Amino acid sequence: MAQLSNELFQLLNGEKLAGKRHEAMMLQTVTEDGWPHTAMISAGEILARNKTDIRLALWQGTTTTANIARTGRALFVACWKGKAHYVRLSLKKLPELKDAKHPRARFAGTVEAAREDIAKYADIISGVQIELKDEAAVLRRWEETLGELRK
């Protein structure tokens, strides 16, 4: 059975979000007309409940959300700890939380395949990095969002 590496699990475990606040990752889906579509996702929108069970909290009404609802698939890509990580996910929509503080389209996923990529001739020194505009508010929202994904 495919699973996340220990390193990637530590990134996505929902803990110590302040230390992960600058990390952005890619979530790739396929549009209705067959084209790749890439969205950015943060550590406050993806939760690894264990090494095979992933939860996503995505903005409602987006192309990414529609693509996942239609296909049940996504490719998660992260550069972390000197490696590029590629994770294929099978996803299904979770019911809406009536009492959600931050309503999102929520998905439960299973790791179908996971691959790490490194090069002998070069080191990956960073992935996509972000700077939060209102750090305290965003970290609070992430904590609350991940709490809702744990339900």
Automatic annotation (TrEMBL):
Domain of life: Bacteria
Gene3D superfamilies noted in UniProt: Electron Transport, Fmn-binding Protein, Chain A (2.30.110.10)
Pfam hit, one: PNPOx_N
Record-annotated Pyridoxamine 5'-phosphate oxidase N-terminal domain positions: 20-117
Annotated InterPro entries: Pyridox_Oxase_N, Split_barrel_FMN-bd
Protein name (record): Pyridoxamine 5'-phosphate oxidase N-terminal domain-containing protein
